[in-house]
Amino acid sequence: MKTGPVDQRTSKVIGVASVFLDNSFNTTAFRGMHRAARARGYELLLIYATPRRVLERRVALRHVAGWIAMYNTDGLEELLSDGKPGVIFCAPPLGTRCPVVRAENHDSIHLLVDHLIRLGHRRIAYIGMTGSDDFHERSRVFDQALRARGIEADLNLLSEFHECAILYTEQRFHQLLERNGKFCTALVAGNDEMAIGAINAIRAHGYRVPEDIAVVGFDDINAAQHCDPPLTTVRQDPALLGSMAVERLIDLLDGLPPRELVTRGPAELVVRRSCGSGCAAWNTAPVAPAIEAPEGDWQRVLSRQMSLLMDGWELPLSDDAPLGWPEAEVIAQGLGAALAGEEPLDVETLQRAFAAGVTRNDKIEVLLAVVKLVEQTAARRLAVAPGPEAARRLETFLDRVRLSQQRALAAWERRNVKSLERLVRAKVHMSRLLASKHAWTQERLEWLAQTSIGVGCIALWADASGSSEPEFVVHSVYPYDTDLTTLVGQRYPAGDFPPPALRAAALPDEPGGYLLLVPLVSARRDWGTLVLGGLHLESFVGNLHPLAMWVSLLIAAFEHHDMEATLQAERDMLAAAYERERALASTVRELGCPVIPLLPGVLLISLIGAIDAARAQQILEAALSGVAREGARWVLLDVTGVPFVDEATAAALVQTAQATRLLGARVSLVGVGPGMAQGMVGLGIELRDISIFQSLAAAISDLTRPEKKRKARRPE
């Protein structure tokens, strides 16, 4: 399937298809992708879908120059069938065309297993998510590592876990403890979120961590340093993996061959208290890289060392590489000023510098390592230029550095708390949206005002009639008081969506300045797409999965209001049917009971519709009036148009026959079919003194027979 022409030399959009979005690892990876893309003049466009689903929906296909497939490669070959290049992120190779960037799973798991064995553990378990190849690879290496060290690998519980979220793992691990008791003394979790969930379950079950069960994780997400106890884990750099994936893709766009088929990011063991307080070699603080430079450039060297510490492995060590944390120069220059006899920098200036660094890396041990590096550099420089005044100024400067670092970190944590508060408010607004018909019809994205998101859009599938390609129609945009409102009502072919105005509004110079496209799909229907920009400007701690919550509530709102619309349509249809029935009944009543002189002395009364009390009275009056007027001897009641005869109907007919008999006439029923006759027998209805004919022809034939024969047929 061709996706439309894309000039890869001029298109500057990198598409990312991912089946996972809303956790700390992916947030950091996307940030690294965005930085690398912006550095090379590209935009980032994230789509929450598999490559196959991207191709089926055809969204953004004409925008994208090349694709990064994260965690899932289903349909990737078809997506790249038009010649676009692709890179695979944290998934197995797919031939040799697409280079792969993934975590260092082999040596890392060996490090964790070796560490636990040195602590005396022999009953070691592994948990991971069954649906992820990274977890499967770590599972295989775990088995190999144990067997290589002569330990039975009988506690690999990969098949027991189908999600990797904290709450799910906590519930599932609690079930395992309920069933098996303390079945292990140490646990290797496939990622930090699963490790934190397991710690919660272990402690809730009455066991201690690490005294009863030691726990180690993988990734070193932000929450790993804050959980109780702090988590021993393998630190890798998701931002580096993301930037490497973008660099590999841009190399392919530039016509450069892949450097290697599989590139693995570096990793290191970070030992904290979750594996045992007796560990003598806690190595949580990274070591500043050594940089060679002339003696007079010590401030420049210090700036680069601090920046490299903050960015981990992301930046190269070359002298001409830009600083990832340019504000580090403020701290280095402030140290130089203090040594030169100038007044030390004020706390506010230093705090702004550290605040910029914390947005790049909020690991406590990394921030402490930065402060330690400044202290060590200050001690060396003071040894070169000793003096009491210099020492005093230097001590004042270092005190302000320590205070600024702590204040910046505290401000960052407060910002995270405010993010959570906004999430709660957003959920409340979404809940109100479900219940408020007015809010739904007016401003479907009003809840975004309670979040840190800068740009929002809901685009629904348009009527496909007369179009060669599926189209979106923009239904809602956010913010409302911007030029984006001109997009509302506009139609765009799927391959050309999102429009340039939305991409430009995503603030491309911000950390979360990319656009994210999330399909709004339920089991019943594919509604369209939610577009968000600036989603990851803040860190969402606690693995709350805000995006999944928002999308679920939004889809629920669509389903709710669609169901209401369907019910209203059904109510309108029933009301219309009722009105038609009333009109028909009124017509029947207006028609009344026409009395037709059929033969001399014979009247025919045709009955139509159900016979209620009012109709019964009408029939009686019509029959008596007709007999008196025409001097009739016989009344034929034609019930062909009566849908059924029940006891009430039969009583009305008997009453009519009895009253008519008093005037000297008899009554016969005409048009009684087999079904009506069977129903009357089933109800035990006896129509005394009423003769019955199957058809009007049969009645006329009987009435026109010679008198003797007719008398013989009359009921007594």
UniProtKB/TrEMBL annotation:
Lineage: superkingdom: Bacteria
InterPro entries: LacI/GalR-like_sensor (IPR046335), Peripla_BP_I (IPR028082), STAS_dom (IPR002645), STAS_dom_sf (IPR036513)
Keyword Zinc: no
Keyword terms of this UniProt record: DNA-binding, Transcription, Transcription regulation
The keyword Hydrolase is annotated on this UniProt entry: no
UniProt domain STAS: residue ranges: 592-703
Protein name as annotated: Substrate-binding domain-containing protein
